[in-house]
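Let's sit down with a protein and look at its sequence and fold side by side. Please make up or recall a protein chain and show it to me in full. Label the sequence line and the structure token line clearly, so we can match residues to local backbone shapes. Go ahead whenever you are ready, and we will take it from there.
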Amino acid sequence: MGAGAVRTGARALGFGVGLEPLPAFFASQDVAVVATDLALDGAVEMGWVDTLQHAHGKESLRRPAVCPDALFDRNVSFRECDMNAVPADLVDFDFCWSACALEHLGSIEKGLAFIERSVECLKPGGWAIHTTEFNLSSDVATVDHMETVLFRRRDLEALAQRLAAKGHRMAVIDWNPGDEPLDVYYDVPPYKPQPHVKVALAGFAATSIGLIVQRGDQ
């Protein structure tokens, strides 16, 4: 994220926040946060409620160990939001984010379109930060039009071009998969409870990748 983005008085927009601690953390830095998640009926259908991955209101995001209650109450608001149909009134934010949510929007194209739409929610110069699932096995074959999709290098390079055509800038991605012990270990289903860097998913090697986009001046 750009230096100085997380600062007193900044406005932040979180997409598909689930039960992550990020809204509370940003609020603890005196950032005004609008946290969003899918409406309850949609979340039930997707299975997010049963797996404790859905925020059904502001109270779901309260983390007293991360942010004092008074600061949380002052800085955090919550609303329902479908990431495939982001409301037009969500605008003028200093930064927005999503953490491994956009791969669940139904297709690779829907995920890419969401990233483009998220940039429109920002002020000129604002930052969009997203993480998602990345296919390490192939730049051709992948998982698409499923509950979880795997983005390829070609998809993200095309996204950079699409954003540049609109005057935005995506940070250069380091494509090096690494060669440290955790980099060469792939967890397989049923996945272990310990943290892992890479997993076997639908016959592909996958990991998470981060995308950083700065909105242009217009």
Observations:
- The two ends are 20 Å apart (CA to CA).
- The chain has a mean pLDDT of 94.
- The helical segments are 22-28, 40-46, 69-75, 108-120, 153-165.
